[in-house]
Each structure stands twice: as structure tokens, then as C-alpha cells.
Amino acid sequence: MPDASRVAVIDLGSNSFRLVVFSSIAGRWWRRTDEIYEPVRIGAGEGETGALGPAPMERALHTIEAYAHFCRASGLVLEEVQAVATSAIRDATNREEFLSSVGEVSGLPVRVLSREEEARYGYLAAVNSTTLADGAMLDLGGGSVQLVGVASRTARELGSWPLGAVRMTERFLPGEEPATKKQLKALRGHVGDTLAGDAGWLAATGDRLVGIGGTVRNLAAAAQRRAELPSFGVQGFVLERETLAEMVVELAEMTPAERARVPGIKPERGDLILAGATVVEAVLEVGDFAALEVTEAGLREGVFFERYLAPEALFADVREASVLNLAHQYPIDPPHVEHVAALALQMHDALVEQGVLERDAAERELLWAAAELHDIGMTVDYDDHHKHSRYLILNAGLPGFTPREVALIAQMARYHRKGSPGFGELGSLMGEADDELLARCSALLRLAEQLERSRDQLVREVRLAADDGRVRLELRHDGDVSVAAWAAERQRDLFQRAFGRDLEIQA
């Protein structure tokens, strides 16, 4: 991408090392464009000795050297690479020796994050990828747990404790056998006692807890598959406390090797997932949270956001930014797209004013999002571009929206050209009134698309009146709108099915 700037963030975590390349155009869009993951386990054995062991250090240095080669081969200069280290390296008694070796083999400067910095980057990731305004953020890593209390989208309380999945596994759940009740009781007690004092503020933060980190993502993916829900990522997935408790019981009855084969759990996390799940369960209990909301963003995104969103470091509106970020990556005829969105919202607002629809800001926002994204599939091909748009929306994800909302937006885009709106395999995500919602928004989006069929913005606005079981749609225009009127007339049946009223178009 010739106009895009790039930055590589290297996260030297206690369990895994990860290199992520972000490409962006300031004020327009950003996205991940490359990623390398390696389960290094640099923190293995540190809980017992306090130092990084020879074998973990050798694995780490080999990985970092490979990352440095990758950055050079990709044309990334040192100023475009940010390498940060977290709990295991921060706490190691021989960290300076290790960091010196890193410099020798890679030439990369590594910034060791303080506990406060690590927690802050997790907070930036959570608040910029969800609608969290008041509540708390949980970042569970291999070496430590970070908790941040959030009020009015601002970090108020910060804390970090050595309760990571690697450390807790080595201390309480070693070996290759299923966990005993005694082991789990000891682990729960340790986490609860550790947090009870220093994290007493947690219960006063609010009802929402947002979680980041590999263990959290794996637990969410396993819960999705356990519930047989359609999966297009875990962004916005809500893991209920009762579900997590059931999963802990099930995982405790398995050996680490068996846990590694549980759908949704990465094989390299099989030995860690039970301890991680138990720590999360304890945090939910200490804070009296009913559920954990999952985001796919992590510390690496937090580091990137600090740079991309400087000086504020926060999106003003996460949902709006999420939609426009995806739309701007595929700039297909922006005047047409914006005009379709405007016409669709004009009709929605007019139907509310005429008493045909109830006022619903959430429905209106979903319609706007679908209109902004309905044509992005043309990047793939014009043929079936409505289906390509659906695929891109589902798989690119829309941080700030729930899985249900993402599916609704994707299906609205899917039916903006033709077909009878429905959910197919996504139906299990929907509520009982969502069929009608999809029908309404799909009808309005398709009608708006047809009014802009010639892509010339000649239909500058629409007026609407409803009476006697009929809706009259008046087109205000600046030229010959015979194409628009003809195309819109063909959607009368769809409109009637969605709203139970006949549609009359007046040019």
C-alpha cells in the first residue's frame, strides 16, 4: 500500500512472542497486515528460581532474531519497530543479561513495560475496541494479570498481580493428569486472597468487565463451539459466569493433552487453559461480574493506538470509527455510498415521523452501518458483490458491535440487491424480533440503492407520507429520474412484506 505508513509491534510476553504489523493512513483507516506468533514460554520455571532459564532464553533469542530478520526483509526501519516486554522479563533477576543478548542478536531496542504501562496499554486496547465506558478491564497474560477500573472511558484504578496462566499452572496444576479438587481449591484461594485486598475497588467499578489476552480469546472460542454458535471471531462475545464455571469443571476432568484438543483451544495452550480459566472465574467473583465481554484487541493494539490516535489515544465513537475504518479500506464510489446511506436514513426517519415505525436509535445505526458498507464487496468482484460484502463484514469484524449486530449488518448488506432476507446459519445469534428488523432495514437499503441506481445523485432527497395502508414516496430530483423510479418500483413487493403497506412512488 504505497500511501500507508507501517509500524511493527513486537510483544515479548511471558507465554508467547508476537509480531504484528499495522498499516494505516492517519485519520482514515488502520488494519493488521501481518502477524507472526510463537509460543516461546520465556517465563517457564521463573516462578521457582526468579530468573529466566537457559532453554527459554535460547528459544526467545532465536525467535527475536527471526523477527528482526523479518522486519529488515519487510523494509521496516528501527523507528517503525516497537518491541515491548512484559511480566516475565520485567520481573526476572537476569533481565539485563537477557536484554543485552537481545541487542547483540537482533539490534532491536526493547522497552520493558512497568506494571502501570502494561495495564494502560490493555486499557487502551479495550476502550478503543468496545463501548466500555464504566466498568473494568482484565488482561490475563502468562505471567501477570492487569486490572483497570474505567469511569467515563478514563482509567481510574490500575493494578497488576503475578497471577498469569503460566505461573499459576506451574505452581498449582503441574503434571499431565486431570486436576484434583484440592489443587483447584488452592488455586482459587490464592487468587481470591491476592485480589481481595489490593483489588477491593473492583466491585465498585460497575457491571461490565472486558477481557483481553490469548487465554480469554481461547475460552471465548471454546464457549462458542460448546454452544454450537456460528463463529466469525470472538470480538464482542459475552462469556457468562455460569458458562465459565461449567467449563472449568469440564476442563478439570481432562488431562492437559485432552484440553489441547478441545475445539477453540489452541494446542499450545492445553496445559495453561484451566489455570487461566480459574483466574478469570476468580476475578468475576471478586468483582461480582455476571459475565466477561471479550475483545480480540490486545496489548499490541494498545501500543499502536497510542501512536495512531495521538495525542488523545481514544476514538471519539468506537462504533462509528469501526464502520468508517472498514469502509475507508474499500473506497468504492464514496459519493454513491454516502448518498445511499442518506436516502435510507431519510426514509427510516420519515417512517418514524409517520407512525409506521417506532423510534429506535439502535436500528437506525445498524441501517447506517450496512449502507456505508454495502458495496465493499465490489473490491472482490462486481458479480455477487452483495455476498462478498457480507463476507468482508463478518470476517473483518466491527469492534464495538456485538456478534448479533455484526451479523445483522452483514445480512442487510447481503440483501441490498436481491433475494428474500433471512439469516441462514446465523439465525442462532438472533432475537425473536430480528427477522422483522432485517426485513425492514433490507427493504429500505435496497430501495435506497435503487433510487441511486444510476449513481448520479439525481434523487437528491425523498419525502414520505403514509395513510390508508399505503406509503407514498415522493422523489425530489434535479433531472430525469426515470431510471430511479423504474428501479424503485420493482421493490414494491419487498416493501409491502416488510411494512405491510403498499408503496406508491411519485417523481
For the biggest β-sheet, the strand order reads 8-7-6-9-11-10
* Overall pLDDT confidence: 96
Number of domains: 3
Regions with pLDDT < 50 over 5+ consecutive residues?
none
Radius of gyration: 26 Å
User: CATH topology of the largest domain, anyone?
Assistant: Hypothetical protein af1432
Helical content class? 40-55%
How many individual helices?
Answer: 20
Classification by helices and strands: alpha/beta
Largest sheet: 6 strands, mixed
Return the CATH architecture of the largest domain: Orthogonal Bundle
Number of strands: 14
Distance between the termini: 44 Å
Structure description:
The chain has 507 residues and is of the alpha/beta class. The chain has three domains: 109 residues, ATPase, nucleotide binding domain (Nucleotidyltransferase, domain 5, 2-Layer Sandwich); 186 residues, Nucleotidyltransferase, domain 5; 189 residues, Hypothetical protein af1432 (Orthogonal Bundle). The protein is built from 20 helices and 14 strands. The strands form three sheets. Strands 8-7-6-9-11-10 form a six-stranded mixed beta sheet, with helices on both faces. Strands 3-2-1-4-5 form a five-stranded mixed beta sheet, sandwiched between helices. Helix 14 packs antiparallel against helix 15 and helix 15 packs across helix 18. The longest helix is centred in the first third of the chain and has 20 residues. The protein is elongated and about 80 Å long. It starts with a strand and ends with a strand. The mean pLDDT is 96.
